[in-house]
Each structure stands twice: as structure tokens, then as C-alpha cells.
Amino acid sequence: MRSRPAASPATEMSWIRHLVQVRYHMHSFDSHFALRWIQRTSAWIWQARLAFFTALIVALALFVSLLYWQTEPSVRLSGLLLQLLGITSAAIGIRDTRRMFGKPSFLAQVRTWLNVMPIPWRRTTSVSTSGSDTSSVSDEFTVQGWHNPDNNFDSRLSAAERNLQLLHELINNVKSDFDAHVRDLSQRIRNESETRKENDRQLHLRIESASTDGLHLAAAGVVWLACGIVMSTAPNELLNLIR
């Protein structure tokens, strides 16, 4: 039986370096993959942050009242706090919608209503204005350099030719000014149309954002309010289930 020849020290060192490089690349790949997985998981959890926060508040209220204190007043108080959170979330949604559309607050409306309240000793001042505005616009068209002919025929013909040339130049100038004015108006209309489209898009995004955020906040408020009502209404039954 023939024995395998022993490997040279240079060959062994090359194999060792190769194994070290492979191990290093595998470790780098695992670290990069783990980091990307953590980033994707964090982004996925952040998308449902309101749902996790809602569940966390409910779980905390249940733990403190049913497992830690285990008394009827603690359950009722926790339910009351959850109800207040639900009402507060609804109020925040109403406030954000009001601010988005530029509506006055409830206190501002109350102050305005009180300011116009009819009081017997308050003097009312009425102001009447009358006036007339008449304006007249007259456009006067003057041709500069108009040639006045003499009495003879040649002078009249030469003046007519020069005047026709002036009229032709004047018409060309007016046409050029009119075309420039039309181009300017067309550019303004295009700019106005683009501005209106952008404003409409921004308004649509704001309305959509306010609506979706308001729905999510309202859903969280409904969950808190429902849990608070149950805990405040039936604390003894909940304690009996735990015990």
C-alpha cells in the first residue's frame, strides 16, 4: 500500500490562508444579512407602531389592575383612564382635521358668538357707504412719421408709397407684439395650470394623510374606550376570571 506524500509547508500555509479568507467572508456576509434583517424588521414594526402602542397600553392597564393590585377600585380606575385616552384620541383627531381646513377652534367660536350677543345698553353703529365710479378709456392710435404730400401728382404718389410702407411696418410691429403677448399668456396659463395641479396634489395628499391618520387614531381610541368601559362596568367578574 502506497502512502500519500506529505504536503509541503507552503501548501499548508496557502490552505490555511484560504480557509481564513472563506471564514472571514462568511462572517461578513452573516453580519450584513443580520443587519439588513434588523433594519427591515424595525421598519415593519414602525409601520404598525400605533397598533403596538394601543396593545401595550391595554396590556399595561390589565396587568397593573388584574395581576398586580387585584382590587376592584384599581380595575375601575384603569378602565376610567382607558376611557379618557379614547376620548383624548378622538379630540386630537378632530383638532388635526380642524387645523388642516383652517377652521376656528371651539373657544374662538364661543368668543365670536359672545361678542355679537345683543345687549340693551350696547350701541350699534351702522356704516353705509355710497359712491360712484365712472371711468372712460379711450385708445388713441397715432402713426409717427406720416408723410403729407404736396399738390402735384408725383408727390402724392410718392407720399402714398411711403405711407403704405409705414403701415406695413406698423402692422408687422403690431403683429409681433400681439404674438409675443399671446406667447406670454400661453406660458402664464401653462404655469398656472401646473401650479394648480401641484396644489391639488398637495391638498389631496394632506387630506389623505389626515384621513388615514385620523382613522388609525380613532380606531385606537375605540379600542381604549371599549376596554375601559368593560373594565369599569364589570371589575368583579374580571377579577373572578383571573382568580
Provide a descriptive summary of the structure in words.
By secondary structure, the protein is mainly alpha-helical. Helix content is 77%, strand content 0%. The protein is built from six helices and no strands. The chain has helices spanning 9-47, 49-69, 72-100, 106-115, 153-233, 235-242.
Please give a quick description of this structure.
This protein is mainly alpha-helical and 243 residues long.
What is the topology?
Layout: H1 9-47, H2 49-69, H3 72-100, H4 106-115, H5 153-233, H6 235-242
Helix pairs in contact: 2-3, 2-5, 3-5
Order of helices and strands: HHHHHH
Task: Report the biggest beta sheet as strand number plus sense, adding barrel if it closes.
Answer: none
Show unreliable segments. 1-7, 127-143
Average the pLDDT over all residues and give the rounded result. Answer: 76
Number of helices: 6
Helix proportion: over 70%
> Strand percentage, roughly?
under 5%
Dominant shape: flat
Radius of gyration, in Å, reads 43 Å
Quaternary structure of the protein = single chain
Distance between the termini: 79 Å
Class by alpha and beta content: mainly alpha
Total strands: the figure is 0
List keywords for this structure.
243 residues, mainly alpha, flat, disordered N terminus
